[in-house]
Design a protein that fits this description.
Length: about 325
């Protein structure tokens, strides 16, 4: 795995340091958030970033300043329930939403290959098929359903409804947990030092107690393993109370970039994560970059053109969409 970190402009603090320092400042993590936001569904509605600022109007001035900085690059937030599964649920919805909006059939075919490798990994580790097969099957079903043109194709509204349906949402979360556990066990020598530093347990004990059970919170070990196993880059933006200096306010982020062999492109340096999560100690939500809002308008228009079969205009829209994706993503790179 290749790690890329954005440091503060003056003090060079990395995101991991901020996580440790600020856990005490924010409270008890997912348990506290679950009590405070019990009305939040598994996956919430998209909200403007100003809704996040409203949470801290009477709180830390540093956080308010950092939310303003976030507003330079991000336009919206989608909350997830703080039940210990927030990372996996945020990843689930963000990834499937990306496929639905881009209709990335090549990406679907690519990740299906990775999913099959994950299945083989679990089998080689001694897992019995019936312990994980239903979870794998349901995730693959969601992949097919977000692609349009199938009898079972679903809308964005239906994707949101499914993500809020416990029978679907929890099964997909369990799929990710098994994939994560399999990757950690397969590469136990790589992950062992990180796990021992966090929990003073063996890799096997860590997977049994902190990865596979529902409700167990995720940290950088989980994110690294899932990103590597599925070949999906993930950006985590950290909203913390780390102090600022004369150089101004900055917001740290960390990019989890899989090994080149697991990516759709061999040049990992050119990869810009299309999944962006906001981390506040103990909790993950989904962040939406500003450029995604622009592309969504174009993609929505393209779907309408396809529906009415306006081929000339549709082809022109595709050219514009691909151009904008290439150049707007380039402008978003730090």
């Amino acid at each position: 795995m290749q790690n890329q970190e954005e440091q503060s402009t003056a003090d060079g603090e990395i995101a991991g340091t901020c996580e440790i320092e600020d856990c005490a400042n924010f409270g008890g993590g997912d348990d506290d958030i679950m009590q405070q936001q019990s009305s939040v569904p598994f996956v919430g509605d998209k909200e403007p970033l100003s809704a996040l600022a409203a949470e801290y109007q009477s709180g830390s001035p540093i956080l308010l300043e950092k939310i303003k900085v976030l507003g330079d690059k991000y336009v919206a937030i989608r909350r997830t329930r703080g039940d210990g599964n927030c990372f996996f649920r945020s990843f689930m919805f963000s990834y499937l939403e990306h496929i639905l909006e881009t209709q990335g059939r090549a990406e679907v075919e690519r990740i299906k290959v990775n999913v099959e490798e994950c299945r083989k990994t679990l089998q080689s580790l001694g897992y019995v098929d019936f312990t994980f097969e239903d979870f794998f099957a349901l995730f693959l079903e969601q992949l097919d359903d977000v692609l349009q043109g199938n009898e079972t194709s679903i809308s964005h509204e239906e994707l949101l409804n499914r993500s809020r349906d416990q029978s679907v949402s929890d099964y997909v979360v369990m799929f990710f947990r098994f994939v994560t556990s399999g990757e950690i066990r397969k590469r136990s020598q790589f992950f062992e030092p990180f796990i021992f530093g966090l929990t003073n347990t063996t890799v096997e004990q860590f997977c049994k107690s902190s990865v596979e059970p529902m409700g167990e919170e995720s940290d950088h070990v989980h994110i690294t393993a899932l990103s590597d196993a599925l070949g999906v880059p993930i950006r985590v933006v950290y909203l913390d109370r780390s102090s600022c200096d004369a150089a101004g306010v900055s917001v740290n982020h960390h990019d989890f970039i899989p090994a080149p062999g697991n990516l759709p492109s061999a040049n990992s340096e050119s990869i810009n994560p299309f999944i962006t999560l906001l981390y506040r100690p103990g909790h993950y939500d989904i962040l939406y970059p500003k450029w995604m809002g622009h592309l969504y308008v174009i993609e929505s228009s393209l779907c309408i053109l396809q529906a009415i079969n306006d081929v000339p205009v549709m082809e022109a829209a595709k050219v514009i969409l691909e151009y904008d994706k290439k150049h707007m993503v380039a402008r978003q790179r730090p």
